[in-house]
Input
Amino acid sequence: MLCLPPAAAGAQAFELKPRLQTGWRADAILGSPAAIEIAAGANVPVGYYVRMGFDAAVGVARRNDRAVPAGRVDVAARYLLDPFREFRWGPYAGGGLTAGWVDGAGWRAHLLVLVGIEGPESHGWRSAVEVGAGGGVRLGAVFRRARHNGR
Output
């Protein structure tokens, strides 16, 4: 009996659906340069409590007292305190890398840290608010497609 491989328990078969969660976000970045950006992205579960995501954003930044094109890409992991929706609101924290581009200034990479709270589902979507730091202070409104059986 000791040499036989263990059988999978029913609790080990849990899978979040849909696996790929898409979403949109709007961010105000307070820094040098300040910017307003709209992003699209997606994330996948990496275990029960962690979501690994990618976002790409476009917008405008203030540089030399004028508005110029700007954009960024983010790769970040979020640690969820309530991955199974046991509560109405689900706080999370995370970090990763962000690379921002501003016309005339080129690309700059930064470490990214963030905290947020995700709200209840409404019409198949979940909204969240985030505060982050990475290339300036970031204030964001996030809209993600709701998962059927978790966050």
User: Anything to note?
Assistant: The beta strands are 21-30, 35-45, 50-63, 66-80, 90-102, 106-122, 125-133, 137-145.
